[in-house]
């Protein structure tokens, strides 16, 4: 410790140098623990945030029970964004999601506007489940 700090401690406190050093050590320890605690709380808050993929997966939670355990379902969307299609495949695995509505079950994935498919060849689509998240499960009735 520098002469200036030691001299200040002698003048500022009626304590001896050992007691003054102990107080300084305790203060630094408290400051260190407080800084660590603040960082740990911030890290816990950061880990508690929901990432985009998890948020995307949750959009499909209410239709999973209506899908087969395995097999292929069709896909219909309000845009042709590949990212959403691949995330849908990932989310519904092990079910295969074909990028066509030509299957008995079709998953609709709509962000901007729900555009129900009216016909595909001779088939019509009946809504089995429509969620507020923009996810729709259709049954394709071939006629």
Keyphrases for this structure?
22% strand; 2 domains; single chain; alpha/beta; 143 residues; 6-stranded mixed beta sheet; rod-shaped
Describe the structure.
The structure is a single chain. With 143 residues, this protein is an alpha/beta fold. The chain folds into two domains: 3-48; 52-142. It has four helices and six strands. The chain has a six-stranded mixed beta sheet. Strand 4 (119-120) and strand 5 form a beta hairpin. It is rod-shaped and about 100 Å long. The N and C termini lie far apart (91 Å). The mean pLDDT is 82.
Q: What is the CA-atom radius of gyration, in angstroms?
A: 31 Å
Ranges with pLDDT <50 over ≥5 residues?
none
Number of E-type strands: 6
Strand content: 15-25%
- Strands of the widest sheet, in order across it, are 2-1-3-6-5-4
How many discrete structural domains? Answer: 2
Main β-sheet, in a few words?
6 strands, mixed
Helices and strands, in N-to-C order? HHHEHEEEEE
Q: Which helices and strands occur, and which strands form pairs?
A:
Blueprint: H1 3-12, H2 17-48, H3 52-58, E1 72-77, H4 82-92, E2 96-97, E3 105-109, E4 119-120, E5 123-130, E6 135-142
Parallel strand pairs: 1-2, 1-3
Antiparallel strand pairs: 3-6, 4-5, 5-6
In brief, what are we looking at here?
With 143 residues, this protein is an alpha/beta fold.
